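User: Hey, my collaborator sent me this sequence without any context and asked if I could get a structure. I don't really work with proteins. Can you help?
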Amino acid sequence: MTGQVRGVQLARLLGQWHALPGRRRSPDYAALAGSVRGLLADGRLPLGVRLPAERELAEALRISRTTVTAAYRQLRETGHLASRRGAGSWTMLPGNHRVASTGLWTPLDDREMLDLGVAALAAPPQLLSAARAATEDLPRYLSGAGYHPTGIIELREAVADAYTARGLPTSADQIMVTSGTQHALDLVLRLALAPGGTVLVESPTYPNALAALAGRRARITTHGLAGDGGWEPDLLLGSLRQTRPKLAYLIPEFQNPTGHLMPAWLRERVVAAAHAAGTDLIIDESFVDLSMDGTEVPPPVATYDRHSRVVSIGGMSKPYWGGLRIGWIRASAPQVQRLAAVRVGVDMASPVLDQLVAVHLLADAEAIVADRRVQLAVQRDALLGALARQLPEWRVTVPRGGVTLWAELDGPVSSALARAAEEVGVRLAPGPRFGLDGTLERFLRLPFTLPAADLVEAVGRIAAIRYDLDRAGRQRWREPAVIA
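Assistant: No problem. I've predicted the 3D structure and written it out in structure-token form, which is a compact way to encode the shape of the chain:
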């Protein structure tokens, strides 16, 4: 079990949980149960946590205890709650759920869902030929134990060469291969952050990074990103100087979820400010290859590092395929050796065959990435066009790379919209998933990784739900009856 959530805490997470008005209206107990299921689905309410007593939650929500009792009963019936008399009720999931690629719990029978919660592309056609070539290379590794804690030398050299080509001279000794970018982040946190250490992150930011920081019991401070320009230089640099965090986690290339690109001059100033504050920088470069519209990507943040303050992480998931669990860490050679020692307590090494596949894909990187950029530009423009036609009140900054749009909605309805969209076969990642304490309800992340036709269809369904909420809302209010 992970602990207990108090009534006021759960009330804050639930936000505007009430049933939708009008013809879609359901009983309040059903709406409350549905909202709790939604929190479990998007990971904001952990599994195995004890929910508040019925009376406590009723007081926090200012509703009748009968409503809470009925909601808990429905959650038990659907397999989302386990109760024991005198001990309380704990969150769980029914047996017909799985973990999706977003990290969210989803039903097994959701194959027809248009999933806009996933910011990743399907595999490129070159993957099959890379896999065949990798199997031909495999025999020369079979006589050994197969454990390579820092990665096979071919892949480390290929990744190092890619950094050198970007203007950052790098040797294979400075590269550690990991089982994905998230694994890379976890290893860096294990090495560099003691429980309770302070970490500065952008707001909004990548939700799985927030989950990793929560796992280390980090004290998180945030720097808010502006709608158009991204990072406010004075505020960002001031946060580093004033809070002096142990770590700062930043996504300077096509930031997830906003799509912003940090300029070169700010990168240099951030590194200088971090050094003065005694802060180590974790730079997530997951989207660095996916520029569009001829956008020139500035030099890597580590280019400006003279004191081993910058650790860069990246991987194959975004430009290639999420199913190929290959990531990496670029750091000083001594840091790589310390990371390898930390890794022994997590896993021994990444799979050799997967690494060989990655070597062949990187050898064909120029063609693969060029195709990805063209594909993403077409899909981005299709999504932008559909939003302009059907949801013109929403504000969207056009990203010059990456795979996501960050939409500012016409009201604080992100979570409610996500719940309603599930009913019409669209899965959304609401704004609060990308921040702390249930904020960002006016925002929604929309990846453009699905085919263009699917994106247009998804926007049509979202628009119908959004307008239906408005119409139903107007139907709710009536003149009060006068009783004389």
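In plain terms: The two ends are 57 Å apart (CA to CA). You can pass these tokens on to your collaborator as they are.
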